[in-house]
User: Which sequence fits this backbone?
């Protein structure tokens, strides 16, 4: 039996607006709102005449209005930044929500975003930072400034009055990770995959559709995300809905051969295909399966169940299913190598993690992410 919110993702895939709100239990409606799918739930139930009589209608309608306001605010802020950069910065590459919301979503407000993410060349970063200061943004983070010396984006900026956060990227993944070093995310390949585009009439660049597919999947699998994980699925659903015929899948798979990015993409595509959320021939999934090194049938089944239970369904609380333990389990099963070896490592890694104090848990999680996550060639 599929989790209730799969029906919401299926409605997005099918372009439906007639889903009855009564089809979702109250806790699932609240979970949808918490994880960023509240605007989509309102959109998918547009034709439900009974929706306004639901006791959860104020929550749903309020989420919808808030999403519209925040989307307009972020679009205006991005336009201000692009206008300031015009003639001073060679190119600005939009990433994540600010890119895909305008490009592929039926309406941008369906795609909540925490930050405005964009990529510029290293040499242009001081200019962009100076322009952000001029626009009223200030840098703020709980991490020390040295952390960002090797990070893939600079210390975040926030506008104190507008509460808009901005991240200036110089790469797609942290430089100390294997994902950053893999060919598909290398600087030369990234440069070749930039495409001229426009945002609200202003010139920008974006990732090619093929690279964006891989980037969405790799970012999604980089660590286990109970909150926000469904948004990445929705990104891929809307992107593939409009571009699947134009994607050169064989070329994409050649980029990925043997890398952890192939594992990430295989995990996400097989999950979406399992519920009919995307239309992809089984042969393509088989070809991709041959390019990845982590999953056998049992491992893949376990990963799908983790997504079902802790990302799509409203997860239970408790020490054994904490976010920390879930991420350890997630990363163990993603390690390239023998699927059976990964399964055998699970009890040891989880047991070891459960005996650590909070400080050592943080260190283990960080080291585990950097050394064995292989979210990361």
Assistant:
């Amino acid at each position: 039996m599929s989790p209730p919110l799969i029906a919401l993702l299926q409605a997005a895939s099918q372009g439906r607006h007639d889903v009855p709100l009564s089809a979702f239990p109250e806790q699932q409606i609240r979970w949808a709102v918490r994880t960023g799918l509240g605007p989509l739930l309102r959109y998918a139930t547009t034709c439900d005449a009974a929706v306004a009589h639901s006791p959860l209608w104020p929550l749903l309608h309020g989420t919808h209005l808030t999403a519209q306001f925040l989307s307009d605010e972020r679009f205006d802020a991005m336009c201000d930044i692009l206008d300031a950069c015009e003639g001073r910065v060679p190119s600005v590459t939009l990433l994540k929500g600010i890119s895909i919301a305008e490009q592929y979503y039926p309406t941008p407000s369906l795609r909540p975003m925490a930050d405005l993410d964009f990529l510029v060349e290293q040499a242009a970063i001081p200019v962009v930072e100076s322009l952000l200061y001029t626009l009223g943004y200030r840098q703020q983070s709980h991490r020390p400034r040295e952390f960002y010396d090797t990070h893939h984006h600079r210390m975040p900026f926030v506008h104190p009055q507008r509460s808009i956060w901005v991240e200036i990227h110089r790469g797609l993944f942290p430089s100390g990770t294997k994902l950053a070093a893999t060919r598909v995310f290398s600087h030369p390949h990234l440069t070749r995959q930039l495409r001229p585009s426009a945002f609200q009439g202003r010139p920008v660049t974006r990732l090619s559709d093929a690279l964006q597919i891989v980037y969405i999947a790799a970012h999604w699998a980089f660590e286990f995300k109970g909150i926000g994980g469904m948004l990445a699925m929705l990104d891929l659903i809307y992107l593939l809905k409009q571009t699947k015929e134009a994607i050169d899948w064989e070329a994409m798979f050649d980029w990925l051969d043997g890398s952890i990015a192939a594992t990430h993409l295989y995990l996400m595509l097989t999950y979406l295909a399992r519920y009919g959320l995307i239309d992809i021939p089984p042969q393509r999934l088989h070809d991709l399966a041959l390019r990845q090194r982590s999953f056998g049938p049992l491992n893949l089944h376990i990963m799908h169940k983790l997504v079902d239970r802790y990302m799509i369904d409203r997860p239970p609380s408790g020490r054994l299913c904490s976010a920390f333990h879930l991420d350890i389990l997630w990363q163990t099963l993603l390690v390239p190598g023998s699927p059976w070896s990964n399964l055998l490592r699970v009890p040891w890694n989880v047991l070891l993690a459960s005996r650590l104090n909070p400080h050592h848990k943080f260190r283990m999680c960080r080291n585990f992410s950097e050394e064995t996550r292989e979210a990361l060639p």
